[in-house]
Amino acid sequence: MSKFALRSCLALAWLAASAGLASAQGIPFLRHDSVLDTLQSITDSTIPSNGDLNPYGVAFVPAGFPSGGTIAAGDVLVSNFNASSNLEGTGTTIISMSPTGQQTLFATSPIIGLSTALGVFSRGFVIVGNLPVSYPSGVSTPGQGSLQVFDKNGNLLATFNDPTLLDSPWDLTINDGGSTAQVFVSNVLSGTVTRLNVSISGSGVTLVSKTRIGSGFGHQLIPAIVAVGPTGLAYDQDRDLLYVASTADNEIFAIANAAKRTTSAGTGFVVFADQTHLHGPLGLTLAPNGNLITANGDGVNAGGTQNDLVEFTKEGMLVATYQLDGGNPGAAFGIASTFSFPQGAVRFAAVDDDLNTLTIWTLGSPF
Question: How confident is the model at residue 73 (pLDDT cuts 50, 70, 90)?
Answer without folding.
Answer: very high
